[in-house]
Design a protein that fits this description.
The structure is a homodimer. Chain A folds into two domains: about 50 residues, Helicase, Ruva Protein, domain 3 (Orthogonal Bundle), CATH 1.10.8; about 140 residues, Dna Topoisomerase Vi A Subunit, Chain: A, domain 2 (3-Layer(aba) Sandwich). The first copy, chain A, starts with 7 loop residues before the first helix and ends in a 13-residue tail after the last helix. The longest helix of chain A has 17 residues. In chain A, helix 5 links the parallel strand 3 and strand 4. In chain A, the strands form two sheets. Chain A has a four-stranded parallel sheet with strand order 4-3-5-6. A two-stranded antiparallel ribbon of chain A has the order 1-2. In chain A, helix 1 packs across helix 2. Chain A contains eight helices and six strands, in the order H-H-H-E-E-H-E-H-E-H-E-H-E-H. At the A-B interface, helix 1, helix 2, helix 3, strand 2 and helix 5 of A face helix 1, helix 2, helix 3, strand 2 and helix 5 of B.
Chain lengths: ~210, ~210
């Protein structure tokens, strides 16, 4: 008998983990054997964290961020600047921007980007919800912080056209060289963006264009 | 407010997955968001596979392999050759050897290798259980299939000394160039082993030394 698979329970764990992003069959096998000898509490915590996830986590009615309260912690926080909305593709992008510690405004999650190949058009994104937040004159600036790829660019272009008539200031994240990188290894598009978007190196002359 | 962590349930999943081998915080975040939008059934299957693992999986009383029945499927299989025992470090090594499709004998899992740095000596391995299987003259050959690293070599040397007096044939896996590799990139120890262990290239002259 050539035994190519494990007995039921181990194979079930391997199969379930192999379906997760970034985990292959070898990694899943390693995890299964790790769990087999791991502390009971750790295994129980892992299983219950997964079960609780879908029950507890909702999406914020205002910004679309993941949250356990509605509205989310950011939308409810009176210290956040209500005059600026930063538009991102996914909830995890909010975490990335929060980690910079440089932004104190609100967010709006689109839930993706325009992608004709995957049949995702403007109507599949939370664009109507964004427009609803722009009534009145609370919002002074919209920062488009989409991924710097084809889909993100297409969505940025679409939103700039849609939002420009409203007379609200629309900005986008700067493209350029990543900090700590090497000019030699920069691709020509990134280097081109860094060149056209060059800043005055004299800090005293840099205030307002 | 600078929000550096997610709300409870998402952060719990990220924390639990970050503790697994081969998964970092970014990979765990990716999995958490994947699970958030994944099919209910898939998420439930993942959680229950983890819960069932420890309950159902035992170790075979004879060979030490992971199993849901005792003895395990291999030890119970009458078609397996009882005269040969292949000694491995971990249950997952059995799967690797089974995948070759070239072995029809039995196995014995040591549960690790001798490693003074981690305070693992011969008494921490299933060596007494191995000796118990060698009573009578059923077993004709013991194949030592330990990892080709320092700990595996130390354990192999120890077992050769221990088992030699029993008069049973003791063999070990061949060291040499991995198939599909390049001579130029082989390390000198592997290449040295391939050289000293060279085989007669004439298949008709290769039968028995």
């Amino acid at each position: 008998m050539s035994l190519m698979m494990y007995d039921g329970a181990i194979q079930n764990v391997i199969d379930a983990f192999t379906q997760l992003p970034g985990i292959g069959p070898k990694g899943a096998q390693r995890i299964a054997f790790y769990l087999l000898t791991a502390d009971e509490t750790q295994v129980a915590t892992l299983a219950s964290s997964i079960t609780n996830l879908k029950e507890k986590v909702k999406f914020c009615n205002i910004c679309g961020n993941v949250t356990e309260t509605n509205p989310c912690l950011i939308c409810r926080d009176p210290r956040r600047d209500k005059s600026t909305i930063c538009v991102v593709e996914e909830p995890k992008d909010i975490m990335s921007i929060e980690r910079t510690g440089l932004y104190g405004g609100e967010y709006h999650v689109l839930g993706g980007a325009i992608n004709p190949m995957s049949d995702i058009g403007p109507n599949d994104l939370r664009i109507r919800e964004l427009l609803n937040r722009l009534h009145g004159d609370t919002v002074q600036e919209i920062i488009l912080a989409l991924d710097p790829n084809i889909e993100g660019e297409a969505t940025t272009t679409y939103l700039v056209r849609l939002l420009s008539p409203l007379g609200i200031k629309i900005t986008r994240l700067a493209s350029g060289l990543p900090v700590g990188s090497d000019l030699e290894y920069a691709d020509e598009i990134t280097l081109g963006r860094a060149l056209t978007g060059r800043l005055n190196a004299n800090p005293y002359a840099n205030a307002e264009e």
